[in-house]
Amino acid sequence: MAIESPQPGAELGAAGGAQLALQAVYLKDCSFEAPQGPRISGDWNPQIGLDLNTAVATLDGDLREVLLTVTVSAKHGEQTAFLVEVKQAGAFLMQNLSELDYRRAVGIICPSVLFPYVRSVVSQLVSQGGFPQLLLPPVNFEALFASSPDPASATKN
Hints:
The structure is a single chain. By secondary structure, this protein is of the alpha+beta class. Helix content is 25%, strand content 38%. The chain has helices spanning 99-128, 141-146, 151-154; strands at residues 19-33, 47-60, 63-76, 79-95. Strands 1-4-3-2 form a 4-stranded antiparallel sheet. Strand 3 and strand 4 (79-95) form a beta hairpin. The longest helix has 30 residues, at 99-128.
């Protein structure tokens, strides 16, 4: 898959302005485990666990890969019904962003762009595993960012 950057200044209003542009979205890794298959006795009312993680890596120059990892576990009583992990990535062009804007892009904007893709993959995997459809609830990445370990720097102007 080729990732092409737009021509310099093509999306900038003024030369040297801040820019955040999505270049590509791709599934990097996924797994589905159902130790007992869909054989669940009794009423289906699982306890759902949801873990989110965001990582960033430099691909080339101002091109960054943001990786959103979502792990969903479902337990029926003491038994694990299924475990799903999806790693959805996006290539984002990030130019002339301040430190705070960069952190907000990586912590809020990019994961918000990637999450609908993750939500779809999780739903498909769970359904194909023989379980009732699972739609992940919306995630407020801005609230998660604000409550991150370093909230003082997240709220600086």
